[in-house]
Amino acid sequence: MAGATDLPIVLYHYVHSPYAQRMVAYLTLRKIPYTQCFQPNVLPRPDLKEKLGIAYRRIPVLSIGRDVYVDTRLIITKLEQLYPASAAHPGISSSTPEHRLTEALLSRVVTDGGIFMRAAALLPAELIAARGAQFVRDRADLAGVDMRGKGDEASPFSTDSLNARRPEAVAEIRDVVELLETTVLSDGRDWLLGTAGPALADVEMVWPLRWTYRIPGGLPADVISKKLFPKVFSWVERFERAVEETRAQLGEPKTVKGDEAASIIVGAPYAEAEGAVVATDPVVAAEGLKKGNDVKLWPTDWGFLHKDSGKLVSMDKTEFVIETGGTAGSIRLHAPRHGFKVSKAGGDAARL
Q: Does domain 97-239 have CATH number 1.20.1050?
């Protein structure tokens, strides 16, 4: 097995995905080279489903060698482990226990605590409508709403639904921006933890705000603006410049089509040694899971209508790993324990 830093990285994403922007910012600031494979912003995505056998429908997806990782929280954790700080790949994570706790909490609360969901609800209804019925139905599928036999007005992304949620979203995001303005950024520092440059804590906090600020009409200027919150807006702009300046030094990543991306992945060694299924894990014990079991794997919050199937390779306190594959060959698919579920194939229906 080759060292991880010698293996190719492929990032499947599309430009306007906020989670992909988070990932691109991290890779850029760490100067970790990667190849990108652009995907449509709606299903189907045959580059993933058919060529690699990955049913997971969220973006981004990242491979290191023949190991493929989903969920940006796990992806960043793995890159922190497999690409330790060096002259070639400068570290951006903190060394103190207090700051590491801050990074971990931000990683969870921005997604699980609803900050991103409130930011997403700021999307103007007319902008969503302009993307067409296919986009509206695709996002309903992402939210777990089966639209078969229903009109588009039943979608949580219909114009009426979006307009109804927007005022509360504005209030919630305003509160988050005000909290940053009046606490950690109030003393004039450039970065959240007082570091010399953008750190992992900045990456974990800035991405939904950075994404929202780019959306025409996303923020009502009378409630959330640079005039009202100059320190927060300056911090976001500073982060944007830092990423752009580093990208200018590195150059744009190579872009490939799906066939070449899949060939790169299945033609590479695995980045990690094969793990074990920990017999003492309470879920393993309760469900009688064993290495080699045919299982299904899916996220429990968004996109749970799409389940990956494969053989259970390993399962520990932090992640699930299954072996799956498509027309290009087999791969190992990694998903975090947090926010995901695994069960024996055919046994998941009663557990949703």
A: yes
Tally of CB atoms within 10 A around 77: 17
Q: In the chain, helix, strand, coil percent, each to 5?
A: 40, 15, 40
Residue 248 CB partners (closer than 8 Å, separation 6+): none
Q: Which of 114-128, 240-254, 283-297 is predicted least confidently?
A: 114-128
| pLDDT tens for each residue of 154-177 | 788 888 988 999 999 999 999 999
What would the pLDDT profile of 227-277 be if each residue is shown by its tens digit? 999 999 999 999 999 999 999 999 999 999 999 999 999 999 999 999 999
Whether the CB-CB separation of 145 and 139 falls below 8 Å is answered with no
Q: Give the residue extent of every domain in the chain.
A: 97-239
In this structure, what token pair is assigned to residue 246?
A: 């580093």
The length of the chain is 352
Of 110, 122, 65, 86, the closest CA to residue 265 belongs to 65
Q: List Cα–Cα distances, 297 to 149, 277, 304, 313, in angstroms.
A: 27, 15, 9, 12
Q: Is the pTM of this model over 0.85?
A: yes
